Amino acid sequence: MVALPQRKIFWRPPHATGWKFLETRIIQGDSSPFPSITLPIHMLSTIAQLKTRLQQALVAAFGAEWADTDPILVPTNNPKFGDYQANVAMSLAKPLKMKPRAIAESIVANLAVSDLAEAPEIAGPGFINLRLSTAYLEQQLQAVRTDPRLGVATVDPPTRVIVDYPSPNIAKEMHVGHLRPSIIGDCLSRILEFLGYDVLRLSHVGDWGTPFGMLIAYVREAYPDALNDDSDIDLGSLASFYRNAKKRFDEDEAFQQLARQSVVELQAGDEATLKAWKLVCNLSNRTNQTIFDLMGLCDLTIRGESFYNPYLLDVVKALDDKGLLVEDQGAKCVFLEGFTNMDGNPLPLIVQKSDGGFNYATTDLAAIRYRLDEDKVQRVIYPVGAEQTNHFAQVFQVGRRAGWITDAVAFIHAPFGNVLGEDGKKLKSRSGDALKLEEMLEEAIAYARTDLINRLQAANRDESEEFINEVARVIGISAIKYADLSQNRTSNYIFSYDKMLALQGNTAPYMINAYVRVRGIGRKGDIDFASLSDDQTIRLQEEWEFTLAKHILQLDEVLAEIDQDLLPNRLCQYLFELSQKFNQFYENCPVLKAEEPTRTSRILLCDLTAQTIKLGLSLLGIPVLDRI
RNA sequence: GGGGCUGUAGCUCAGCUGGAUAGAGCAACCGCCUCCUAAGCGGUAGGUCGCGCGUUCGAAUCGCGCCAGUCCCGCCA
């Protein structure tokens, strides 16, 4: 067995201020080594290969001391400069005391890339331009085409990653606030899983504390048998259950007293109360599951706050043992470094309240310990709103100072912005409440359905009810997801059914349509893509084919970027450009009417495009359709 | 008062470790279906990259300072 080449991907160091917001990473001082992941590459990415060649050329030209110099290899922004450009010559002008152009000439003289690219060219002040050779591209296309993973390598070893989302509170219905964590968390976990990580999806649901008093009291009152019975009594729909409980709570003072009493009993571990609590949790989880199913989310492991109850006291004790705990005004706290209150005094993180109760920081710390000790996790990702940036920075800081979080692991807050209404303000319903998640999804489907029916009528097409329902559901849900994922995670975005369902532009329907076009070619030409022989090859001729093919081959680079920066919009951007390039090819290069061997070559290129779109969309959590 | 983030075309947003003429979609205007579904393609027009200073051969990108918006800052999550 041949040893596989390896490359190391380093966490990006946190020096740049622009990065702080992207991820809160815990690193002990700037000089410490960053955790690294080693990837085996069964098909070395083009950019990695070129980089290696350039480094070898640097050594050959200027000596071994330049071996670690970054060749500053980037894709060109203009096809006339080729596919990639190395900008290292300019940066070496000063240390080498040479003219950049002369440096570039020396590098090129020592550069062996004939198996990958055409003869390098030097342009401008000293740019080294590289254009991939047709033979190399065709060889790469063939390798990708015959690989179920489309040439994307898996990580080795498959380290464990926990993605913590969307963690709703069980005492409320899921609302607009859960839209982004659900979609982004699901997408990131799919991408990381595809890259070979051992992904554990945990939903840290809010299933403990005061909000349950009211609900438990209502179970007692409305379903008195439920507490003594072992059977799982049906509490009806979650929405009506909440509504009724709230009504009782608001109208009756004695009921409020009962609710408060229930909280005390719950925390004391009273069995009948626990039973009622469990019933509420089950109802909520069941209801949320139907929403997850509608959204097409991957299955989650529910590990709520209550799970960590047995570990909370130990967190406090451990902090005390480390000498971090300070009692202040009756509360047990850890005073934070770098956080001050409005008076300029150090801010505490309260881990036990003056009444002896615990709060969410304690639970988060317990979860950190559990995930390290029991789950043996290497990386934990929290896709949570940007409002909680301070909270995570604080909890991670305490985890680090307690010695739990080390350099070998990464705890990452992947923050996102708010969902805004078309008025640019935080999205709310007419009545001012948070919009219910389920209603948003249903509305998107209804919009898609109306659009579809109008279009079918305009085209004089007659389709079955089943077809219409399926397409409306897929387009509606996909549009909502894609609209969310296609924007930079860190910024707010304006939620608009009209825009996300627009049939043109950077939207889910546009991408799905590109896929449908390939399927259309298959139907028209009676081609079974699945049975295309591995021996047949793609031959690139027209400019449109080159442009499309080069883009297809960049999938692994995009996914490698997302592995590091956790920004799904990069994949959306990639797929949008892929679809655009395919549409241009489709417009300019006839497939079925072409002469052989061009015809077969183009069929293969179409199929590879479709496979790439399908895979890419699936990583976003979006399915494809054969016909729309 | 302190801190985070955001500020790029009329609108919504990309812009990767600083790199050649700052991109896309929508909206506007002009074209393209006897031809694989036009949910498509081509073109025109539109920008002091919030402002200033600095670092650099080179800055939308890095640093500092302002301005504007937004979020957070002790026992809720």
Proportion of residues in extended strands: 5-15%
Number of strands: 16
Q: What is the CA–CA distance across the termini?
A: 47 Å
Structural class: alpha/beta
Q: Please state how the strands of the largest beta sheet are arranged side by side.
A: 9-8-7-13-14
CATH architecture of the largest domain: Orthogonal Bundle
Radius of gyration over C-alpha positions, nearest whole angstrom? 28 Å
* CATH structural class of the largest domain: Mainly Alpha
Low-confidence segments, given as residue ranges, are 1-42
CATH superfamily of the largest domain: Isoleucyl-tRNA Synthetase, Domain 1
| Helix count from the secondary structure assignment | 21
CATH topology of the largest domain: Isoleucyl-tRNA Synthetase, Domain 1
Major β-sheet, in short? 5 strands, parallel
Q: Return the average pLDDT rounded to an integer.
A: 88
* Helicity level: 40-55%
Number of domains: 4
Net shape = globular
Tags for this model:
628 residues; alpha/beta; Gyrase A, domain 2; Rossmann fold; 4 domains; 21 helices; 48% helix; disordered N terminus
Commentary on this structure:
The chain is an alpha/beta fold. It has four domains: 44-133, Arginyl tRNA synthetase N-terminal domain (Gyrase A, domain 2), CATH 3.30.1360.70; 160-206 and 306-413, Rossmann fold, CATH 3.40.50; 211-303, no CATH class; 437-620, Isoleucyl-tRNA Synthetase, Domain 1, CATH 1.10.730.10. It is 48% helix and 11% strand. Strand 7, helix 6 and strand 8 (198-203) form a beta-alpha-beta unit. Helix 7 (211-222) packs across helix 8, helix 11 (309-321) packs across helix 12 and helix 17 (508-525) packs parallel to helix 20. The chain binds one RNA strand of 77 nucleotides through helix 1, helix 3, strand 11, strand 12 and helix 12.
